[in-house]
Amino acid sequence: MNDADTRFMALALSLGRRGMGNCWPNPAVGCVIVREGRIVGRGWTQPGGRPHAETVALAHAGAAARGATAYVTLEPCAHRGQTPPCAEALIEAGLARVVAPMEDSDPRVSGQGFEMLRRHGIDVTTGVLAAGAARDHAGFFLRTEQGRPLVTLKLAASLDGRIATGAGQSQWITGAEARRAVHGFRARHDAVMVGAGTARADDPALTLRDLGIDRQPVRVVVSRHLDLPLLGKLARSAAQVPLWLCHSATADGERMKAWEGLGARLIPCAVTAGQVDAADVLRALGRAGLTRVLCEGGSALTASLLAADLVDDLAVFCSGMAIGAEGLPAIGALGLTRLDDAPRFRLEGTTSIGADILSRWTRV
User: Fold this and answer.
1) Which end of the chain is more exposed for a tag (fewer CB within 10 A), N or C?
2) What is the pLDDT of residues 330-354, one digit of tens each?
3) 326 classed as catalytic
């Protein structure tokens, strides 16, 4: 590994992030092909996961790929699915060297892509910017290893941790700049998830807006009884923008028919202690292919995810407003009696966004 390896891998990682939220169930991979110090090809995983980053970069490089080095942000795939293996494509293109941060956690690949390359005389270097790649691919790894997507919990609260007044008014606690930043978060996730209480109280569209992006994340609502407004924004757009409803298997049959008729996808989940089981919800979303989910509340769903240790990242927008104890807390009851049992996160950084502060946290 040398300075050039680090520089070109950093570029490949930045390219791979362009696919975040748009290539599930595949990982958002980036690829840069370099020959004699000059970039001759680049690519990232395309919408829907095909074609892969290596295929795009090889097409860009053409004949210049022969004898070159490919910087790929994850081990090239070795299995034949809808397309031939990327490792095979790199071999046929005549690459001399492949640099990658780490193995793919998918058991169909894990180590086999590197082995295929080495068998054909290609020099393989691993471990370059592995920490950054692990961070970028965390959702994909969680899905392949634990069967669930990565969860980012977004909170927008007053300085005393309230998300609404006692009368239920919540629009708007944070400013326009912070709300626009939330759309940036939505763009980097496969899905946006809220609880039934938030869907009823706020009538949200949960769509991606004002960023010039023409795709939409999947919208997930956790509602045990499917008691959501059939004339609300979610219902009116269910046929145009994916809407998945996670509910109890015993939800009212007429409501199930109504939502299916509107175009929603129904996902029955287990119920624990009177609530839809958060872990079962995430397992179901993982089976459906999701790798990155942004949860935007409300307080009950937030508490259930935290209590089950299912939150990987926190994005907390804090305004300079004080609402008071009668307001709705950002996080519902966790049932804690000991501080040692409280969920803990490590601060990654803070940013001023308009009049508000964004703090980013990750699990300890």
Assistant:
1) C
2) 999 999 899 999 999 999 999 999 9
3) no
